[in-house]
Specification:
By secondary structure, the protein is an alpha/beta fold. The protein has helices at about 20-30, 55-70, 90-95, 115-120, 135-150, 170-180, 195-205, 215-220, 225-230, 260-265, 275, 310-325, 400-405, and strands at about 1-5, 45-50, 70-75, 105-110, 125-130, 155-160, 185, 210-215, 245-250, 285, 330-335, 375-380, 385-390. About 45% of the residues are buried. Bound molecules: N-carbamoyl-L-aspartate. N-carbamoyl-L-aspartate binds near residues 58, 135 and 138.
């Protein structure tokens, strides 16, 4: 049993091992006793929330967590109020902020921005959402919700429904679910499917191949797929939702669309209503990271399966646990990793001199906006023939693949 996590960044869900995530959950169980009132664990410490995008739950639950732990909070809820508006970079901003605060929580629309912040700050950096890329602390609370409400993650069947292309919560969550042995089904309208490279990694690294569907109705009529996955001979189409222990719904991410027309086409293309839920299991969970727009009807709120408000509430003990552990005030007890479990490996960097003129092809990557950042590439953990951007995980196109380099 080691005591770890002090001083660590959480930029990607891959930064913590399975055993470390479980240690955070164990601490969150303890913190659940203290979500009202105050425990003095973080007396004298200060957290800065640096948010360049709107937020209700993530920022406020981080701030509530720090206040409940007895610490102080510096809050930037609007980048127009700080020197970012004058053109200050992420690198300079975090180096200033860490002279006032012991830990930084950052949300920024650029993919890889939290990694850039962590590279420049010596204080721990927690990623509260970097564009469409990742949202690892949301994944911690999503997994914690499933574990609290369902007992265990292994063997659970979870449908991810909605804008799986732009939704950062589902990107981190898919990896979290695969790592802990849950089965994933993707339900996304055309154009909003889970990104191909992410699916490739799920399969190559975790042997997870999610079933793919365009809508819940399509599943309803797709009897053969239903039978295969249900392992039953006489599955009835109407029972399709009974396959899922949890249905995780997400909104269409309006702010990440290239055009208003594309957004208009996508919005209202799916919705969970009481009528839809009539086909779900009586003990299924309906989850949503929130905010909701059109995709989750208010008539579901009174259904006992509606879990999203409890899910948001679990954000408090989970973030209290994370803060106390990373700030070294309540050490997490991490058991040794077991064979086959995920644990981060040293990052294998591609020799940069040979890639001197190469930039990441993702226009939303932080390295294409904050030009002082040196593009940096890694050999992919899941495929030694692939090279990916160290900031946003975008795969590098073929001419720069390592075979070409050797
Ligand atoms: C999500 C986010 O910001 O990615 N919200 C959250 O953090 N709870 C989901 C969303 O905005 O749709």
């Amino acid at each position: 049993m080691t005591v770890a996590l002090e001083g660590r960044d959480l930029v990607s869900i891959f930064d913590f091992s399975d055993a470390e995530i479980e240690a955070v959950f164990a601490l969150a169980d303890e913190m659940s006793e203290h979500t009202r009132g105050k425990v003095g664990l973080c007396d004298g410490l200060i957290m800065c929330t640096l948010f360049y995008e709107p937020s209700t739950r993530t920022r406020l639950s981080f701030e509530a967590a720090m206040v409940r732990l007895g610490g102080g909070v510096l809050s930037v809820a609007d980048p127009a109020q700080i020197s970012v508006a004058k053109g200050e970079t992420i690198a300079d901003t975090v180096r200033i902020v860490e002279s006032y605060a012991d830990l930084i929580v950052i949300r920024n629309p650029l993919e890889g921005s939290a990694r850039a912040a962590a590279d420049y700050a010596s204080a721990p950096v927690l990623n509260a959402g970097d564009g469409a890329h990742e949202h690892p602390t949301q994944t911690l609370l999503d997994l914690y919700t499933l574990r609290r409400e369902k007992g265990a993650l292994r063997g659970l069947s979870v449908a991810l429904v909605g804008d799986l292309r732009h939704g950062r919560t589902v990107h981190s969550l898919a990896f979290g679910l695969a790592r802990f042995g849950a089965k994933i089904t993707c339900v996304a309208p055309e154009g909003l499917e889970m990104p191909g490279p992410l699916l490739k990694r799920l399969e190559a690294q975790f042997g997870c191949t999610p079933a793919q569907h365009r809508s819940l109705d399509e599943i309803v009529t797709n009897r053969s797929a239903l039978k295969r996955r249900a392992g039953r001979q006489k599955a009835l189409a109407a029972e399709v939702l009974s396959l899922f222990d949890a249905v995780y719904v997400t909104r269409v991410q309006k702010e990440r669309f290239e055009s208003q027309e594309a957004y208009e086409r996508a919005r209202s293309s799916y919705a969970i209503t009481e009528e839809v839920l009539a086909r779900a299991r009586p003990d299924a969970l309906v989850m949503h990271p929130l905010p909701r727009v059109d995709e989750l009807s208010y008539d579901v709120d009174s259904d006992p399966r509606a879990t999203y408000f409890r899910q948001a509430a679990y954000g408090l003990p989970v973030r209290m646990a994370l803060l106390a552990a990373v700030l070294g005030r309540r050490p997490a007890r991490v058991r040794p990793s077991r064979a086959g479990e995920y644990k981060p490996r040293p990052r294998r960097e591609v020799d940069f001199r040979r890639l001197a003129d190469v930039r990441c092809a993702n226009p939303r990557c932080v390295t294409n906006h904050e030009r002082y950042l040196q593009p940096q590439f890694l050999f992919a953990e899941y495929d030694a023939k692939l090279v990916t951007c160290a900031y946003c995980d975008q795969e590098l196109p073929a001419p720069y693949a390592p075979e070409a380099e050797s």
